[in-house]
Design a protein that fits this description.
The protein is an all-alpha fold and 494 residues long. It has 22 helices and no strands.
């Protein structure tokens, strides 16, 4: 596509604004606490908006449009089932203990609740996951820029990495939250725009439903909970794998999510940020999945049915090329770039925090000065961007959609993570030995199920059950910690 002067102006204005805000927020960063937790000064409304765009980004705009085309409204469950209730559970049960225990990372909490081995294991796993997520987000950006502007894959990845690294390295969490608040304001109208234009082009919601239903392979596209024989999202897997494991584990144990609330100015602000996030997220299932159904109604003959070699990441770029007029394209591209930058900065900043807090300080330099940790945190941002860029081509070639890639990565360890968090928070009887055994058995089960080709929702649920059973069994025959060591870490011992 050829961008009009108005489109270019709007995109440049957005980039200048968000970069300027990020650099402005970088002022006054003097300690690692300022860098990693924004000095515990984030108000509830800013943390809530930051939570939204930490979750909803380029991978979701691109990935859910493509998977909405493939599978239909069942994809809305990633917010309806996997978000709303887990967010409220996190707000009123888990978050007060995380915030009150004054930890910087989730692995740090697990280390205090169980032992250093658990902390180290999940710090390593989360760091690798975040590196893979950075690669996934870069693939999302490249898909849009390739489809709309004709940029090459590597040029798209390089430009995106440089723009995000510029202020994320200097400003830490404070710069991330400030730019994410602005991105949230841009993202919602931009996502709304493509839905409104698409519905108008189709001829209304009833026409859309008629056109989609008329296709031979879309029998369950309007079933929020498909039949148990659905090839990718049978309803038992949605309820058990997503509702019980992946959703709660994501909102309770994801460092990129929880770090925003750990930087909140008070425990009440931490809780309120989650509730505010849940309210905003009610609109996103429609805004992100509806474009896939619109593309199905308009371009089914051109895109064809999903099959071998079919690229779900091209659904949204095709819609933008066909539907968005000059002027409005600049708004939409600004929203997309907002999603890219917000997602990237969230995961890069959080991965840097994990590496310094849970690996460098305990094992490499226990007496490292605060200035040294601050400098290392900034250096790691650049390294993580480079590593994500190098890994991005593997994600591009191995997965049908970026959303599927992201969820598959999560399923490897979320079951074990949630088991340890749940039993560690709810019972004083869970022991350190039980935590280690549950962790290892849960992750090994996930690896085995993935190797046998199980759906990732079943993988997550199976690993959670295996980890929980092992943790409980081993804890029954080992000695728990005394109450004084568990104070502030278990909900019965405040």
């Amino acid at each position: 596509m050829t961008l009009s002067p108005l489109d270019l102006g709007l995109i440049v204005l957005y980039l200048l604004t968000v970069t300027g805000l990020g650099l402005w927020a970088s002022r006054g960063i003097r300690t690692s606490r300022d860098y990693f937790l924004a000095g515990k000064s984030i108000p509830w409304w800013a943390a809530g908006m930051s939570l939204v765009v930490s979750d909803i980004g380029a991978k979701d705009m691109i990935g859910l449009a493509g998977d909405g085309y493939r599978y239909g409204v069942v994809m809305m469950n990633f917010d309806f089932v996997g978000c709303i209730l887990p967010v409220l559970l996190a707000a009123f049960l888990f978050m007060p203990f995380f915030w009150g225990s004054n930890v910087t990372t989730i692995p740090e909490y697990l280390g205090r609740r169980y032992n250093p081995s658990v902390r180290t294991f999940f710090a390593v796993v989360w760091s690798l996951f975040m590196l893979a997520t950075v690669a996934t987000i870069l693939v999302s950006a490249a898909a849009m820029f390739e489809g709309l502007l004709g940029w090459s894959f590597w040029f798209s990845v390089g430009v995106t990495s440089v723009l995000v690294g510029l202020y994320t390295a200097s400003g830490g969490l404070r710069a991330v939250v400030v730019t994410e608040v602005f991105s949230c304001v841009v993202l919602i109208p931009g996502a709304t725009l493509i839905c409104v234009l698409g519905i108008r082009e189709v001829g209304g919601v009833s026409t859309l439903m008629a056109k989609v239903s008329a296709l031979s392979w879309t029998r369950e596209h309007f079933e929020l909970l498909p039949s148990s024989s659905h090839p990718a999202y049978p309803w038992p897997a949605v309820v058990l794998g997503l509702g019980i494991v992946l959703g709660p584990a994501y909102w309770i144990g994801n460092q990129a999510i929880v770090q925003r609330t750990l930087g909140a100015s008070s425990e009440d602000d931490a809780r309120a940020s989650y509730v505010f996030c849940a309210a905003i997220k009610l609109v996103f299932p429609v805004l992100l999945v509806l474009p896939g159904l619109i593309a199905l109604a308009l371009y089914a003959e051109e895109l064809g049915p999903p099959g071998a070699g079919w690229d779900a990441n091209q659904v949204l770029p095709l819609m933008v090329k066909r539907l968005v007029p000059p002027g409005a394209l600049g708004i939409l591209m600004g929203a997309f770039i907002a999603g890219v930058m917000a997602n990237l900065e969230s995961y890069i900043n959080s991965a840097s925090t994990l590496l310094v807090t849970d690996l460098y300080r305990p094992f490499v330099r226990p007496r490292a000065s605060d200035e040294e940790c601050l400098a290392l945190g900034r250096f790691l941002v650049v390294g993580l961007l480079l590593g994500g860029a190098l890994f991005s081509y593997q994600v591009k070639t191995r997965f049908a959609s970026v959303f599927e890639a992201f969820q598959t990565f999560l399923s490897f360890f979320q079951g074990a993570l949630f088991a340890l968090l749940l039993f560690g928070m709810l019972t004083r009887r869970a022991t350190a030995e039980g935590g280690v055994a549950g962790m290892l058995v849960g992750v090994a089960t996930a690896a085995a199920l993935t190797a046998t080709g199980q759906l990732y929702l079943w993988t997550a649920f199976g690993s959670f059950v295996a980890a929980s059973a092992t943790l409980v069994a081993v804890s029954l025959f080992t000695t728990r910690k005394p109450d004084d060591e568990l104070r502030g870490l278990v909900c019965w011992i405040r």
